[in-house]
Amino acid sequence: MPTPKNHLPQYLSFTRKERIGIIAVLFLILFFIILPFLFPFFIKSKLVDHSAFEKEIAALQIKEQDSIITYTNIDYNENNFRNNEPSSKNNYNKVPKGELFYFDPNTLTVTDWVKLGVKEKTAATIKNYIVKGGSFSKPEDIAKIWGLHADEITRLLPYVRIEIKQRNDFKKIENAPGVKAYVKTKNIIITVDINEADTSALIALPGIGSKLASRIIAFRDKLGGFYKVVQVAETFALPDSTFQKIKDKLVISNNEVKKININLATIDELKIHPYLRYNLANAIIQYRNQHGNFSSVNDIKKMVFFTDDIFDKLVPYLSVK
Fold this sequence. Notes:
With 321 residues, the protein is mainly α. The chain is built from twelve helices and six strands. The chain has a two-stranded antiparallel ribbon with strand order 1-2. Strands 3-4 form a two-stranded parallel sheet. Strands 5-6 form a two-stranded parallel ribbon. It starts with a helix and ends with a strand.
């Protein structure tokens, strides 16, 4: 029976094929270990230019520093106002502050606002506000200006001087030697000739807007003119309350109106008049066809359609010649 010592050489010896296989495996392992170090010799990597990227990063850093200087590194004195003299503590450029002087924001020009250190765009905005009827009644009102920063308001506020305009509602009269008395002047009532007025004159009346003014003019043109003020109340959509407010301001300097010849007018010419319309216009044409021409405007009273009220309103606009 063989001993373990006799079997040991069998486990430690290899055949020729096995030795070749072991050597081949070791060679492959060594090759794959060395392979990554050989890549640079066979594969050339592309060079990437990072200069453009570095320039953009540098520009962003400069921009960030500028914004910090503009909004945070502003030198203030003990009264919380910006110092106009350069500070030795800081080595940056400060925001220009402009020249300080006393001013009235209601009369200041764009150029003067810019002199004060306000941006030209903001100055133009203020000027447009004034031109459109806006005004500043007290110094603190400049805080309402859009585009004016809080530090600018604080800097400018002590220099605001608003001129108070005196109302000219009173006139001076001599009452006694050395004594001045004032009496309030009476309001002058503006009158409007409703046969001559245009839309702008009517809009000046209380309660009359552009639409009502246009309707009054259109109604006047269709009628051929007003012969009495009360006719204005018949304008479409004109409230009676509004008419009551304006009636005392309406006058008629010339009550001559455009007349229609009922012996010659066609039905189309008659029916467009606001007081006739189709049924009354047709009645006139039919009567004229049956009885001939009208000898007098009063002949239309013979037709049942024409009541006394209609006749009284219509007669100033009719003629037979």
